[in-house]
Every structure is written in structure tokens, then in C-alpha cells.
Hints:
Layout: E1 14-19, E2 22-27, H1 28-31, E3 35-40, H2 48-65, E4 68-74, H3 78-87, H4 89-92, E5 98-100, H5 105-109, E6 113-114, E7 119-120, E8 122-127, E9 133-139, H6 147-162
Parallel strand pairs: 3-4, 4-5
Antiparallel strand pairs: 1-2, 1-5, 3-8, 6-7, 8-9
Amino acid sequence: MSTSLINTKLQPFNATAYHNGDFVELSEQDVLGKWSIFFFYPADFTFVCPTELGDVADHYAQLQEMGVEVYSVSTDTHFTHKAWHDTSDTIGKITYPMIGDPTGRITRNFGVMIEDEGLALRGTFVMNPEGEIKIIETHDLGIGRSAKELVRKVQAAQYIATHDGEVCPASWQPGEETLAPSLDLVGKI
Length: 189
């Protein structure tokens, strides 16, 4: 049985990412202080992965406006990320950092390593500015994720972070009513 990483802190890491034409060094210190998404995927030059990464790229400007940074992560190297970025129109539109994790340390820290294959599951982790994991979504390899739904989840997490005592019901959208849990609501929803 596994334990949840919800509300745990980001583990220390050092990695090289391909970002906007350059190789950049990143650590957990670069993540702290802003909302962040770690978006794990199995491998470059595959099938479902580019559809997901392209979907996130299409929503990246909106996430940036929300103060969120995205970090895609696979067990490929930063060199492979560059080669994929240079040869795929879909991946070529990515402007968020693509972290290489060839040792699998980051992937293991988040609990999404498929040990027998050396690949990551499709794992999404949203962290608050303090580096605490607030949202986890993990999929099997054949099931793609939705960036639109990811944006909605981040909006809900940001809302409850600034509205103590309120919670967001299912399918909540910004501007809609929230709930304030109390004895008066028990059995009335």
C-alpha cells in the first residue's frame, strides 16, 4: 500500500533542463516561491506524450498569468529533449522547462517510476509556493491528461489557499459558489 504525497514537501534535486533554446540548471530552490506543476511523462519521441505536452503548451500562457510555472519531466536527457523540440512541430511550441531525469531520482521522489522500464508514469503534481504538493493525478501509460482540467484544478487550489474555511465543490469554476463546511451543511448537500 502506498502513502499519499499530498501536503509533503518537494524533495531536493538538481537537474538540467532544455528551456527556450538553452540548457539550464534547476534545483528545488528554483521552484519555491511560486505555484508549480511537475508534469511527468514516459518518454520523448512517443505517441500520447506529445499530445499531452502540446496541450499543456497551449494552456501555458494562461498558467503563467496565474503565476504558475510548468516543468515537464521524463527519464530522457536534456539532449533528447532538445532533439525532440527541434524535430517535432508539437513539441517545438513548448516554452516551459523540459527537465531531463536520466538517473530517475526526481521521478522516484514523486513515486511515479516504473522500475522495470526506467520510465515515468503519467504523473501530475501541483505545488504551492511553499513547495507542498496540493494536487496529484497519476495515469496509466495509455491514458492522456487534460490541460484544461489541470488549469481548473490549479484555480481551485489557489482559491482555497487564499480563502480560509472555504472548499470548492465538484467541477467548480472561478466565480462560482464555494462551500463553507459546517454542522449546518451536514446532510443538506
